[in-house]
Amino acid sequence: MTVTIEARDVTFSFGETQALRGASLAVEAGEIVAVMGPSGSGKSTLLHCLAGILVPDSGEVRFGDVRLDTLGEAERSALRRDRFGFVFQFGQLVPELTAAENVALPLLLGGVRRGPALRSARAWFERLGLGGLEHRRSGELSGGQAQRVALARGLVARPQVLFADEPTGALDSLTGEEVMDLLVDTAREQGTTVVLVTHEPRVAAYADREVVVRDGRVNAPAGVGS
Ligand SMILES: Nc1ncnc2c1ncn2[C@@H]1O[C@H](COP(=O)(O)OP(=O)(O)OP(=O)(O)O)[C@@H](O)[C@H]1O
User: What are the residues whose beta carbons fall under 8 Å from the beta carbon of 195, sequence distance 6 or more?
Assistant: First the structure.
């Protein structure tokens, strides 16, 4: 299998706090990997380094043949826009926009015209059980609905890699499972690679593989050979 995204011996500090201390993780194309670990262990920092949001202090981050850690900010941001999708704990929808406009955003930012962008966006609503909610604003959606809209926004531009940071963290367990079912089904259908940060074993169980971050390093979970 081809490795899509990889961190090699990455370190990253926030001032005095060493968040990553030599973290390595290689994710294969189409693989869904859950990143587990205690609070403060460095999971989100690792995700941000893999996604080219943060630049490591040392070590390498590769996306296919591209070294993300040596790219400039403009190139990294173009790559994030064109190749990566994101879903965060609190959907972070733009409150002034309708649900359909929120989903269309990555396409609009990528230069797609408004008409076709909105048509592509609307196609996601039936698929994710959101039919009829296209014109609602985020304040008029339930937590689960808003998170499904955020998921559609993360996938609408058919990213190669979807980065999901606690995508069900703000939802009750049943709604969280519905969102995970949709996330995993659509990622598999599109062949999207997924890096999923979660502290919930129930959510991690949806992944093909789990890794554990402890003290800024990545280990296989206890009982699993490395
Ligand atoms: N913006 C920041 N400024 C300063 N320190 C930070 C910042 N973000 C994270 N840290 C610190 O870096 C370390 C790793 O944080 P990170 O958010 O990666 O952990 P996490 O495993 O994702 O935690 P959680 O499960 O609680 O979200 C922690 O000690 C945290 O306090």
Answer: 5, 27, 33, 35, 47, 50, 51, 161, 162, 163, 164
Q: Give the sign of the dihedral formed by CA 169, CA 172, CA 174, CA 175.
A: negative
Task: Give nearest CA residue, ligand 1 atom 31.
Answer: 40
Instruction: Find how far residue 71's CA is from the centre of its chain.
Output: 20
Q: pLDDT tens-digit profile of 61-95?
A: 999 999 999 999 999 999 999 999 999 887 689 99
Which protein residue's CA is at the shortest distance from atom 1 of ligand 1? 14
3-219 in CATH: which number? 3.40.50.300
> In angstroms, what is the span from residue 15 Cα to ligand 1's centroid?
12
Angle at 104 between CA 142 and CA 174, to 5 degrees: 30
pTM of this prediction? 0.93
Q: How far is CA 43 from CA 48, 62, 202, in A?
A: 9, 18, 17
The predicted complex's ipTM stands at 0.97
Residue ranges of the domains in the chain? 3-219
Q: Collect all residues with Cβ–Cβ distance below 8 Å to 78 and sequence separation of at least 6.
A: none
For residues 163-179, b (16+ Cβ closer than 10 Å) or e, as one string? bbbbbbbbbeeebbebb
Distance CA 166, CA 73 (A): 25
Residues in the chain: 226
